[in-house]
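User: Assemble these into one structure.

Assistant: Restating your components, then the assembled model:
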Amino acid sequence: MKMTIKEKILSQLLAAKGEPVSGQKLADELNISRTMIWKYLKGLEEEGYVIEAVKKKGYVLQSIPDVVSKERISPYLTTSHLGQNIMYYPICDSTQNIAAEKAREGAPHGTLVITEEQTAGRGRLERSWDSTANKGVWMSVIIRPEISPHLAPQFTLVSAVAITKAIEDITGCVAEIKWPNDLLMNGKKVTGILTELQAEMDRVQSIIIGIGVNVNQEVEAFDVSIQSLATSLKIETGSEVNRPELVAKILYYLEKYSNIYIESGFEPIKLLWESYSCTIGKRIRASLLKETLEGVAIGITNEGVLQLQLDDGEIRGIYSADIHLVNKS
Amino acid sequence: MKMTIKEKILSQLLAAKGEPVSGQKLADELNISRTMIWKYLKGLEEEGYVIEAVKKKGYVLQSIPDVVSKERISPYLTTSHLGQNIMYYPICDSTQNIAAEKAREGAPHGTLVITEEQTAGRGRLERSWDSTANKGVWMSVIIRPEISPHLAPQFTLVSAVAITKAIEDITGCVAEIKWPNDLLMNGKKVTGILTELQAEMDRVQSIIIGIGVNVNQEVEAFDVSIQSLATSLKIETGSEVNRPELVAKILYYLEKYSNIYIESGFEPIKLLWESYSCTIGKRIRASLLKETLEGVAIGITNEGVLQLQLDDGEIRGIYSADIHLVNKS
């Protein structure tokens, strides 16, 4: 990715790890005036970077803002496409809404829409999603695979595996996947995924993968009514998580697993998904639009459809439902 | 449908069939002043209606504009939902683009977006579509069925049957359906359908059915390069077609067949579709994204997938392709 001058200055300050960086050296290397260097540093300070000028030595980066801006994410990126175009909003209604609009307007494959705070975040079935400011990862990724729409639903499961792997890499802790689109830790929701599709009948135009991860919230950040249902990576692991690094890691695995799915089919992803699932092999109750079914979740098909074996032995394919684990009495 | 005052005045003028309608009577019935009546009549004249004031007798509707506005379509409507909300544009880039935006903003089930002329009409795979001013039907219908996305592709076929039936009712002539989305007369294209989907992975948000019908064009309206490929209802039947009536008839059959599909499955629609098809039973060449296949089209599945029997007997399911009829030498 081509870096802007601001990003180049920032990357030098970061690389110096607390040592001063000479203003003259920066000016020479970037072939701009020292006044321009000073202006860029002022710009960084406005974004929350704390930069100290040490006389006759140079500039020292004292602290970096806790934001998920392009400048903060880019240094961690190892992808070819995902996140190579970043649209950052300090606050917005919903990254999913913005991404859908940008997708229609032609935003390229891999575009990331990310924010600190959503005023109208939403989950599956238009349910609301609480997105505390600066404490989570609230993002939407636009991908444009050349596939038929009937291959699109599996991307919810591809995404679930990618996020689980990223969380495992960053925190050392493993989340469980609850079909179709939740990640749990200790039985509490830590991540939701909302995958939306824009398509012609025989061609995907774009898939928009919305991801909400509770990262650095304390227990008190959650309303009392949901404290038994929701948790954050910090609550579960005891450590603050570097959000830009987590974002980059999610994008890495999302790109990797998407490519595997498109090139080799769903089989390899399915194995990973099943290994992280807390649903398969368990007795569950599935609330569908028009009925409620109970039985054992015996697997998912290559179409991502949950296979539920009822007590009379019949196997039903579940395309859409809310799932609850049950203890048979 | 609730009529506006303008629509009420117009419907009285139309009902009078060339006889004068008293301005005082209109004012009394609608409980507004004669000055207001006069203002509404001026408004209608600005839209192209020719209204003569006959002294001491009243107003006579001399001619109606050849447009597909809400006022012109509504009197023909016999639907419960489709077309009950009409958004009319004398000119626009693409009804499909407008409908997609309105759908995202929450436009209700059945909303019709219709125009006289498109500056950037488009067909399948982003191909351009020529939309001559005031001579065709260029429209998009937003529907919001409560179904899973894997049931959505069939709506292209539902729409093809609906439009064929509407054309048959209005002109007495029968078009042939060429899989997946063209209607032909005498082997030339008279209608294109572009069906687009906005969906969560397990729920349709909206299906936008874009319909382009060549209606009253003369041969010269088509570029010489496509005169052997494209035709209009007028060219084929020799008669001018009442476009608002055709629109209302398309909406009627689209609503009827959509309801049958949602309630009873694809089987009954499939039978109709096959009876109008010029593809089934024929030898065809199918150009896919990465290969070209030749064989006999033996039917469609309940998923709307074309079944192609290759010469070695293998049957391939075709989700997306351009189809050409071939004569085996």
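Chain A has a mean pLDDT of 91.
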